[in-house]
Amino acid sequence: MPVSLFDPPALEPETLRVTPIGGLGEIGRNMTTFEIDGKILIVDCGVLFPEEHQPGVDLILPDFSSIRDRLDDILGIVLTHGHEDHIGAVPYLLRLRQDIPLIGSTLTLALIEAKLKEHRIKPYTLNVTEGQKEKIGPFDLEFVAVNHSIPDALAVSITTVAGTVLHTGDFKMDQLPLDNRITDLRAFARLGETGVDLFLTDSTNSDVPGFTPNERDIGPVLEAVIAKAPRRVIVASFSSHVHRVQQVLDAAVANNRKVVLMGRSMVRNMGIAADLGFLKVPDGVLLDAKKAVNYPDNQLVYMSTGSQGEPMAVLARMANMEHQIEVGKGDTVILASSLIPGNENAVYRVINGLTKLGANVVHKANAKVHVSGHAAAGELMYCYNIVRPKNVLPVHGEYRHLVANANLAIQSGVPAENTIIAEDGTVIDLKDGKASVVGQLDVGFVYVDGSSVGEITDADLKDRRILAEEGFISIFVAVDAQTGKVIVGPEIQSRGFAEDADVFDAVLPMVVKALTDAAENGTRDTHAFAQVVRRTVGRWVNTQHRRRPMIVPVIIEA
């Protein structure tokens, strides 16, 4: 349901203004601004990956328009963890002001620094760890360890004169994590005792009952699948899923196999994780891709990107036979990730392609090869009962996730009127322990398309979809400038509509008649003639062929 836009009032003294810029109603683009006393703190700045109805788009950014004129007021960007949907848009914000400090954990900062290096930006950083407290202008920050599918994730408590906000970031409550770093519920409880005025909670799995299974359950399954594989094993996961890569390395060692890392981001991120000690690489297990040809197929595991069906990622190129690794009968492919909503068709297309080539495709639906990195309903309820927040703002999720999360908060005792289901651009003011919606900004999608940022519009994407699905027709006509009489044409060319040009024979006299009638009614303007041609051809195509192609008339006056 579309939201009605209304401008927020001027920010009152001792009031904290919270504005989610992205991440609400979608899985990605996570970004929230916190403003008090004229100063702004940002938590996360991520990207959203395009869906099939957004052809040609590489990335989708948060809309920075609400802060573009206030860059000097930004005191820092807190990054809760190193996933792309939380750090991927940082380079594009730092293009506007390069010295905005980045605040985050060791691994998170290392991942974003590597990304910024490609953009030729050297950031100002503040490395923090769990339990650490920092004062950034009017914001008192405390960082809390949380468990997620990437190491070194942090929740952040933000205290101002207006009250205390606790932002979980992405988290779950795995009690037996691979790195033995659990979500610090003692810190959550302590903050709850002090008083949490606004609780921003991860909503991704809020509609999943119970508790998210343990990561440790995955290791034995991977080991067993690899043990049964007669030839090569290809495992696809997110390029930053350090825990999953660790399990693949361990499973490969147990089966006397070597591991080849595939994909630039996978190689880069795992190199960073290994250098910092977050990834324990057994001696001799990693193998350079060029040397893999010297090993038998049953001694190799390829760790690749592309678990979401991304068209340019390694796995999709394998499925399309556009990669040097030719998948065939006896190969085993493991998709070790969850499906991000909107990517289902792309993923199943890759699964079908690999299966058609003869591979045995193992994925979450037919084997326990992945567990989520997000808290399920039971874990969220646990947190609500520990924190006892006065107000709740569910974040990070599609609309159904936000509603499910809000219902959990209400069941735990949070008054319904203190539970806010917001959308991107909703402005919320916190004062005297009460959070209220005070405005709705017009925030949109900012598309990255090749080297262009923000130049592609929704109208452009609509045109691309029409070209892809319905085809293209151009009509050339030369008319007498004085009488409007057709001198040359009409000549029709089409692409993606019909190979046989004779199909248009029936509409040509209709175009001539329409132009003649328009001229007799006094039309002389070429734009008006073009509209006549477009309507005539469009009506005929729709009636005769049930199609709506892009129609481009070209009218020349002679």
Automatic annotation (TrEMBL):
SMART domains: Lactamase_B (SM00849). NCBIfam families: MG423. Its EC number is 3.1.-.-. Keywords: Cytoplasm, Endonuclease, Exonuclease, Hydrolase, Metal-binding, Nuclease, RNA-binding, rRNA processing, Zinc. It holds the Pfam family Lactamase_B. An RNase that has 5'-3' exonuclease and possibly endonuclease activity. Involved in maturation of rRNA and in some organisms also mRNA maturation and/or decay. The keyword RNA-binding applies. Substrate binds at H370, V371, S372, G373, H374. The gene is rnj. It comes from the Bacteria. Homodimer, may be a subunit of the RNA degradosome. Gene3D superfamilies: 3.10.20.580, Metallo-hydrolase/oxidoreductase, Ribonuclease Z/Hydroxyacylglutathione hydrolase-like. The keyword DNA-binding does not apply. Its main location: cytoplasm. CDD domains: RNaseJ_MBL-fold. This is Ribonuclease J. It is an enzyme of class 3 (hydrolase). InterPro entries: Metallo-B-lactamas, RibonucZ/Hydroxyglut_hydro, RMMBL, RNase_J, RNase_J_2, RNase_J_b_CASP, RNase_J_bac, RNase_J_C. Residues 28-222 form the Metallo-beta-lactamase domain. It is found in: Cytoplasm. Belongs to the metallo-beta-lactamase superfamily. RNA-metabolizing metallo-beta-lactamase-like family. Bacterial RNase J subfamily.
